């Protein structure tokens, strides 16, 4: 009778010598594995109490595949198809930058100040007032085109790379542990820095810095790009690459780590628990704030290396040294407040829109 308690096994063909004890002989049992329990509902039982034997391995492979898909669905979304991540990230990035660009403009202007004793702007409000006074409300959007053209591919590369790196690391419930999310975020940040962010940020900083001069040279995005490349070559759009890689890599490492940690904490033992967009926004804002306090010094150095006076510095290290020597350590946190407002809003918006667009695409775009 002990054999009745053995797991039902798959056989190459009908069992021979099926008696009261049921089952196949040890030699006839399939050497690979037993029938998954999720498939036992499809197993018929004969009058002897033994499992009906399958005539081929087709059912086993089919059932095993269904079991794998079922495991992937346990967490609601085990992985996101890279194509969906790229599309959703691009949409999220484009919407976000149109909302938050004025704060980016103010932050950049404050970071470009070189004089600690006689600064042009006395603070955030003064920067906004003088910009509107000299250039109107449109002045707060100077350089938007370069950032808009770059934000769409930047977010697309960021989320696409993150999903490509993280998908193989997730468990059957779709959970990604915090340490791995840190490394995947670092990889996503480096990829976006090299492919998109460095040239985009260089153009943005040059356009904003150009507005401060008495006779602005650049009449628009394409004219500015043409002039920069004509004067400095393609390398002119890759100024501050080292600082940008350090900044973006640490940015996304911190953000994805914090966001993933909060998500795992919120869902606890129930990976299928849905996150309301408001919760996603709160977690995103927290992740953004963490990245601001963690790497604003790198952002200041990057901005100086990409400005019109970048020739004053021989390298990223020299730039950091001169800032420290001439302006003091507090200079590394110039523009922190406007950057904090922008980044918190930025990351919150991006994560919310990204998650919602992915949900929409999952309903419209069926992928394996």
Report a brief summary of the structure.
The protein has 10 helices and 2 strands, in the order E-E-H-H-H-H-H-H-H-H-H-H. Helices cover 61% and strands 2% of the residues.
Q: What is the topological layout?
A:
Blueprint: E1 9-11, E2 29-34, H1 58-73, H2 82-111, H3 124-135, H4 144-166, H5 178-212, H6 221-232, H7 241-267, H8 277-306, H9 316-327, H10 336-364
Antiparallel strand pairs: 1-2
Helix pairs in contact: 2-4, 2-10, 4-5, 5-7, 7-8, 8-9, 8-10
Task: Note down, in words, how this protein is organized.
With 368 residues, this protein is mainly alpha-helical. Helix content is 61%, strand content 2%. The chain has ten helices and two strands. The protein has helices spanning 58-73, 82-111, 124-135, 144-166, 178-212, 221-232, 241-267, 277-306, 316-327, 336-364; strands spanning 9-11, 29-34. The chain has a two-stranded antiparallel sheet with strand order 1-2. It starts with 8 loop residues before the first strand and ends with a helix. 40% of the residues are buried.
